[in-house]
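Final report, closing paragraph on structural work. Over the funding period we assembled a curated collection of sequence-structure pairs, and we close with a single example.
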Amino acid sequence: MSNSKKVSKSIAVAIRYHPQYPAPLLLAKGKGVNADKIKELGKNNNIPIIENSELSQGLMSIPEGSWIPEEYFEIMASILAAVFQLENGDKDEE
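Its predicted structure, as stored:
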């Protein structure tokens, strides 16, 4: 009988954006258990979680605390639009 644990193969990045920043900021990144912790922290703090494997995989080679490179701006724009819609969607219905 096998006593193996389920191994998470997920990856996750945490990004902060502020209009006064020159670009979105990579706060944290992780694989496996660390990715699961990043996602759990986001969920527990009501931070929107948007899945985009292209962005997550691309940012794994960038140091934490770095600005997101320009090559990812288009993807980030669509993610920020989705987050804005999630956060403000209810207000449009009033």
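The mean pLDDT is 87. The two ends are 58 Å apart (CA to CA). We thank the funder for supporting this effort.
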